[in-house]
Design brief:
Layout (H helix, E strand, L loop, with lengths): L9 H22 L7 H25 L4 H24 L5 H6 L5 H28 L7
Length: 142
């Protein structure tokens, strides 16, 4: 039995546009109008894509069907979490203190990159767990 292919609904398109606008808006607010740090674009979009894939897999494995507008909307949790983690880590230097205490003789560039990876991991994990809880409510028959 092959699943029926339907175009992305209006809500789905709105959720995608919302996610892209959120990413670009935060990039402009954080880095100025010129995006000089590409991790503020690449990592959130990568997080969005991975989260969308996991959301579809989660909802299909639990419900045997997928409501694409719901999965796209909940994939925006990853966008928000990633952008929040990158922004906070960039502007609040004290957040790198736990990593600095683990690796006291490493250069600042290593500390900054490792602490960004640490906070990105946990932001992505929490976003995926939160979205997974909502995805287990199965969509009703349309």
């Amino acid at each position: 039995m092959q699943a029926e292919q339907r175009p992305v609904s209006r809500k789905g398109r709105s959720a995608i546009l919302y996610g892209l606008a959120l990413t670009l808006g935060v990039c402009m607010a954080v880095t100025g109008f010129l995006v000089t740090d590409y991790k503020f674009i690449i990592l959130p979009l990568l997080g969005f894509g991975l989260s969308l894939g996991f959301n579809v897999l989660t909802q299909y494995s639990v419900c045997s069907r997928v409501k694409i507008s719901q999965t796209i909307t909940l994939a925006n949790f990853a966008l928000v979490g990633t952008l929040l983690a990158l922004t906070l880590q960039r502007y609040i230097g004290a957040l790198s203190s736990p990593i600095r205490s683990l690796f006291p003789r490493q250069p600042d560039e290593f500390i900054n990159q490792f602490s960004a990876a640490f906070y990105l991991f946990w932001a992505g994990a929490y976003a995926h767990i939160a979205a997974g809880g909502f995805l287990q409510t199965c969509p009703s028959a349309a």
